[in-house]
């Protein structure tokens, strides 16, 4: 978890739009294991440690269901502190019969995949030690292999699920984008990320500090995919934490030079990638 603190740039919080706040709260508390940090009539901020916002969910007026084949969220990923924590989560899902969309060994990590009641993608994962990651020609070696669930459950050693561990972090976010060339320029030259690995001409994983990825970007919904309607279920924004105020100033200048719009509202700097994914720039 050393990749999610200074001097690295990393994702801290994700804000989602949902159709029914009460339904989503039930899911996120009882299935995922979040705690409510703050709640109002149309919005809730969720936490694992009782202090740090990780996920916020809100119900817009005249909300419409998640629109297919658009840009936006592919999944957000919760990083657990230990492998035994992931084992406890898997045991919890099995016990309650909650359906998974996938369970994968990525060499650098082990992950479970599911969706919330609105179809928003979720990954829950643990990293293998960074010392075991294989880098080849400057790119990290990753794969999608079958997760050894039996071995994972054995690692749990009977540990019971009791909600998300306090040291849970927002490990990364994976986005649908409309194309990769301008997107790469925005995130690499504008925001200062490095390329961690490529998957042909359809996906790009980027990071800072040698992480396997803080952000994933793909065109799997089609090159030229449109942005969803503003009142559609899905991603509202996500936040990036930059190392310090000087780093944020430099990023804002780089984005301006590229022609990207950066707005400041009440001390919060907000920009959009070329596919319309909104980003808050924090320090």
Automatic annotation (TrEMBL):
<dbReference type="InterPro" id="IPR029068">
    <property type="entry name" value="Glyas_Bleomycin-R_OHBP_Dase"/>
</dbReference>
<dbReference type="Pfam" id="PF00903">
    <property type="entry name" value="Glyoxalase"/>
</dbReference>
<keyword id="KW-0479">Metal-binding</keyword>
<dbReference type="GO" id="GO:0046872">
    <property type="term" value="F:metal ion binding"/>
</dbReference>
<dbReference type="InterPro" id="IPR004360">
    <property type="entry name" value="Glyas_Fos-R_dOase_dom"/>
</dbReference>
<protein>
    <submittedName>
        <fullName>Glyoxalase</fullName>
    </submittedName>
</protein>
<feature type="domain" description="VOC">
    <location>
        <begin position="10"/>
        <end position="127"/>
    </location>
</feature>
<feature type="domain" description="VOC">
    <location>
        <begin position="169"/>
        <end position="283"/>
    </location>
</feature>
<dbReference type="InterPro" id="IPR037523">
    <property type="entry name" value="VOC_core"/>
</dbReference>
<dbReference type="InterPro" id="IPR018146">
    <property type="entry name" value="Glyoxalase_1_CS"/>
</dbReference>
<dbReference type="GO" id="GO:0004462">
    <property type="term" value="F:lactoylglutathione lyase activity"/>
</dbReference>
